[in-house]
Structures are given as structure tokens and as C-alpha cells.
# Entry
Amino acid sequence: MAAVLPTLAVVLSVLVALSDLYARRIPNTWLAAALVLAIAAGLLQWIVGTSAPLWPSMPGLAVGLITMLPFYAIRVMGAGDVKFFATLGFLLGTNVLLPIWIIACLLTGVHAVIVLVFRMPRLAYAPGVTQARQRLHAWPLWQRAMHARQGRMGLPHGTYLGIAAILMVLHPELLHWGQP
# Structure
């Protein structure tokens, strides 16, 4: 069981990161499928007697959901981000939620600063920036992404949650950073 849930979290994180970056969307079906697979794997291992039941994962789900709901309520975060964070809590446990949240918020903050800098009047209309923007907007992948977003705006926080989750799974020693 120890390897199943982190592996599932990494696969889900890759899918969510790409989807949120491209279409600013986190499909509920992926989150539900990950939860169902995690529960099924846990039940199977519990039935054959190789692990304890999944009850320890429930606090991660609850903490992930409860801590992010206020951000959704004040409209600074999408519902998909909240559900994804809760799902990560179920898959990885409560002990990694704070580091995931911190890393994701830092990455989202860097993204926001870059967006704001490029919107500054002095830089926004600089010849090189204007040409780069025109080339980007003419790129077929950019046009498909804009169509896929269907007007959804905002930063891809789910992408950064996914990156942070992958980082925590691949480098669990980061949980103990700064501790003797």
C-alpha cells in the first residue's frame, strides 16, 4: 500500500498539471477515479491482510478540503483546486499538505509576478515583448489552449499543486528540511 498511493498521486498530479495549464480545468472524473482506485487498492490489501484499512487517509481528505474551502468561498481559488488538494490529502496524508501548499503558493506567486511585470505599461509595449506576444498568440497550440479554456481566467494553481505533490513524493526528505 505504501507505494500504491504515492504512485497514484504522481500520475494524477501529472494529468491535473497538464490539464490545468492547458485548459484551466481539473476534471472531477479524474479525482473521483483516483479516490476509487485508492479505496479499492486499500480494501484489496486489507482483505489479503497486507495492510491496515484506509482510515488514516480520511483525515488528509478532510484537512485538505476544509483548509481550502475558504479560498474557494472568497473566489480566489477554483473548486477543482480545492478538490484536488483534498484528494492529495487522501492519497498522501496530512503531513505533506502544508509543504505542498507552501511550494504551490510560492510557484503561483512567481507566476503572478511574471504576469504583472509583463503587463506593466513600460514593458508591455516594448518592441521585443510585443513581437513575442504576437508570435505566441499566432501559435496553434496557444490558440487551441485559449479555445479549451472557454474564457476561464486565472492562474493554474492546480498545476503548481501537482508539481509540489510530485516533488514531495520524489523527495520525501524535504518534509524534514531544516530539522537536525
Remarks:
- The chain has one domain: 4-176.
- The CA atoms of residues 52 and 145 lie 43 Å apart.
- Residues 97-119 form the longest helix (23 residues).
